[in-house]
């Protein structure tokens, strides 16, 4: 994009944002909020309080709450050991998951249902 095109694009964005700002200035709800904030800050300054002081007065537990990141995660239950015995060779496989190389080879060769029937535990 050329510098001129980029400039014009930014100029259009600025114009639309200025128009939005002007429409917000005439919003009565925004005027009320701004008036409330200025009066609240003046009152806080008069009595020497901060917003944190007010929050601690209104909700004493707010400062004591544990952040979500500090809550320890619950450990998952350990997987059970599965034991498969190949009746053809007598070979045993002990695994906690289905990602065992030899077990996959057996499932490819004999079929998953057959291999699952070999499960002893």
Overview of this protein structure:
By secondary structure, the protein is mainly alpha-helical. It has two domains: 3-70, no CATH class; 82-117, no CATH class. The protein has helices at 3-25, 28-47, 51-58, 101-110, 112-117, and strands at 82-85, 92-95. A two-stranded antiparallel sheet has the order 1-2. The protein is elongated. The two termini are 66 Å apart. The model has no long low-confidence stretch (mean pLDDT 87).
Task: Tell me the helix content.
Answer: 55-70%
Radius of gyration: 34 Å
CA(first)-CA(last) distance: 66 Å
The coarse overall form would be: elongated
Tally of helical runs: 5
Average pLDDT score: 87
The succession of helices and strands, N to C, reads HHHEEHH
The neighbouring-strand order within the major sheet is 1-2
Unreliable stretches covering 5 or more consecutive residues:
none
Structural class: mainly alpha
Q: How large is the share of residues in beta strands? A: 5-15%
Number of strands: 2
Present the secondary structure layout.
Blueprint: H1 3-25, H2 28-47, H3 51-58, E1 82-85, E2 92-95, H4 101-110, H5 112-117
Antiparallel strand pairs: 1-2
């Amino acid at each position: 994009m050329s510098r001129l095109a980029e400039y014009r694009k930014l100029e259009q964005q600025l114009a639309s944002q200025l128009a939005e700002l002007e429409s917000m200035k005439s919003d009565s709800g925004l005027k009320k909020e701004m008036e409330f904030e200025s009066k609240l800050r003046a009152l806080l300054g008069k009595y020497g309080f901060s917003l944190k002081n007010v929050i601690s007065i209104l909700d004493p537990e707010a400062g004591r709450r544990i952040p979500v990141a500090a809550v320890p995660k619950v450990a998952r239950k350990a997987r059970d050991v599965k034991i498969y015995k190949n009746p053809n060779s007598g070979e045993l496989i002990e695994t906690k998951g289905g990602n065992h190389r030899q077990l996959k080879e057996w499932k490819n060769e004999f079929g998953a249902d057959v291999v699952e029937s070999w499960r002893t535990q």
